[in-house]
Amino acid sequence: MWFRLLALGLLLHPAPAMAGVKENVAALAPSGLVLVVDADGHELVAQNADEPFVPASVTKIVTAWLAMEVLGADYRFETRFYLDDKRVLYVRGGGDPFLISEELAPLAAELVKAVGKEPITGIVLDASYYPSNLRVPGIEDDSEAYDALNSALAVNFNTVYAVRSGATVRSAETQTPITPLAIAEFRARGPNGKGRISLAQDPAVSLRYAGELIAAFIERAGGSVKGAITTGTVPEGLKPVTVHRQSRTLSEILIELFRASNNYIANQVFLEIGGHRLGGPVSLEKSLQVANEMLAAQGLAADIHLEEGSGISRDNRFTARGLAKVLGLFAPHADLLRGHDGGMDKTGTMDGVRTLAGYADTSAHGQVRFVISLAGNSGDLRFRLLRAVESGL
Fold first, then answer.
1. CATH no. for residue 84?
2. Confidence (pLDDT) at 14
3. Is residue 304 in some structural domain?
């Protein structure tokens, strides 16, 4: 009899602990949204959990789950290069979100090896994989790096990182050559001192910068570019001389996406979901169609409403239970979320919105999934709530 009583006591023991956690959560944030679910889907804490909320950057968790399902962990973005009989180089963008200077240097060496060192007589940039009128809801026309325009062919996240002193502009990083357009953009829109700015919301500007930077790296690699940089499409029947596959797999890109919370990367990945499944050119409509079909198949049609894939739109709307279910689906890839603090979680921040969601380890319930959403601008409170959950369960 005694061992039955002991077993019953052990079974009942977690209840006071959970009650204490709920009281702590209510005391810290009585109007906050907090949901904690164990691995079996049992709700351990549920405060205001039925209220839809603006997810901000925790949207990226949903985008990552969709991408891993549609594209796969080993997926690599491609950029194709063609050379005609007049030595005009055509560059067809494939939406690579990580076409950065560290990627362009070996790419240029690969290209020069393929085409030789005889002068290239012009560069034609083909960004037809993305419609020229594509605009992501929530992106504003300003110089903020997080408002960078999405593009089939963009370099360095469609931003310029430079140092300005009066009219003098130089690159802020040794690996990136400064170009005429970068200088002009930074003079017009960049701060005095060091800073990173988005390029103007004009596809022609971002394409021009991509062409100038590719040309500069070709020169660094021992090649030569003598002609003009223009936009156009690859001639029918022309075969690529080289196809550059991004050195980072999708899973590696997602790690960087979560680490930097980069909106540009998130929506490049989101747009590829639709392009890959339904064919190019990409569109938000295609990606939303694929996303909504996948969400509906999981019973989440009413719980996860997406306008885009980064969280920059305030019209994204989630429920806590919906996001907790996505976290369950994403659990095999939870390590991708490990951020600068080592935690497996993602923050979301915009004016009047503070969110936090992910996975936490507890002593009595193992790994749990949690969703926290707060109104206001106090970013620390969401972490205090998380610590109360971790220590109390």
1. 3.50.80.20
2. 52
3. yes
